[in-house]
Design brief:
single chain, alpha/beta, eight-stranded parallel β-barrel, 8 strands
Length: about 250
């Protein structure tokens, strides 16, 4: 097997890894060239996140991510990394307003965008939508905990699950969405003990971001990891300084 070849990473593979306690890696990605190198590096899951609104398109908010561009970027990543599990982040208002529209948009991510999984920010009230998406053949990752698309409601990006009541609600959300058919969970910005309880209570793979080390997989924004972000979050330690390399090379 050459460096550019590997067996496809599927939901079934990720489930087996989680069951064995074998961690898997997840990074955001937004283009075919980077996807190709990340697949060669062995990254298991690539998330085409709505963070592309900020790091690719230059917006100040993730909610400004256009649906059409999100679909195109997802397809680009899958073409660059055909043997990697590619997860599409459904943008703000592409699934919240109407269930039929949400299912059609999710279907577009699967067909036009070549996605293997779609991710939606959800609580227990989204369980009927997750069930309908699942029935339609769309694998769903349910994003619980802190929800960046709701930053306008909370007054900014905040942590979640800091009180007993809030923690209980997140556990309830995760359980309900899993029961509705979610094939994966993503939990963001919650205390590590809460993430550990969520993993213990779940039968599907759990990805964490800013949620401690107990989750089956961890996801980071690639630009944060590579040192291309001026102010990365506290949980993302840059492993390289590509921003400086680009600056020095171009100077």
């Amino acid at each position: 097997m050459t460096r550019t070849e590997r067996d496809p990473v599927t939901i079934k593979v990720i489930r087996r890894m989680a069951a064995r306690g074998e961690p898997f890696a997840c990074l955001t990605c937004y283009d075919a060239t980077t996807a190709r190198w990340l697949e060669r590096a062995g990254v298991h899951v690539l998330l085409v996140g709505d963070t592309a609104a900020e790091v690719i398109l230059g917006f100040k908010r993730t909610i400004d991510m256009p649906l059409e561009i999100a679909i195109s970027l997802t397809a680009a990543v899958k073409r660059g990394a055909p043997n990697t599990l590619v997860m599409a982040d459904m943008p703000f208002m592409s699934y919240q307003a109407d269930e039929a529209e949400a299912i059609r948009n999710a279907g577009r991510f699967m067909t036009q965008g070549l996605a293997d999984v779609v991710k939606i920010e959800a609580d227990a009230s989204f369980a009927p939508l997750v069930a309908k998406m699942t029935r339609a053949g769309v694998p769903v990752c349910a994003h619980v905990g802190s929800k960046p698309q709701q930053a306008g409601v909370t007054g900014g990006y905040t942590g979640a699950g800091r009180t007993d009541e809030a923690a209980a609600q997140i556990l309830h959300d995760a359980h309900t969405l899993e029961q509705a058919g979610a094939v994966m969970l993503l939990v963001e910005a919650v205390p590590a003990p809460l993430a550990q309880r969520l993993v213990a209570a779940s039968k599907v793979p759990v990805i964490g971001i800013g949620a401690g080390e107990s989750t089956h997989g961890q996801v980071l924004v690639l630009q944060d990891l590579m040192g291309m972000t001026d102010t990365p979050p506290v949980f993302a330690t840059p492993m390289a300084q590509l921003g400086r390399v680009i600056e020095e090379t171009a100077a």
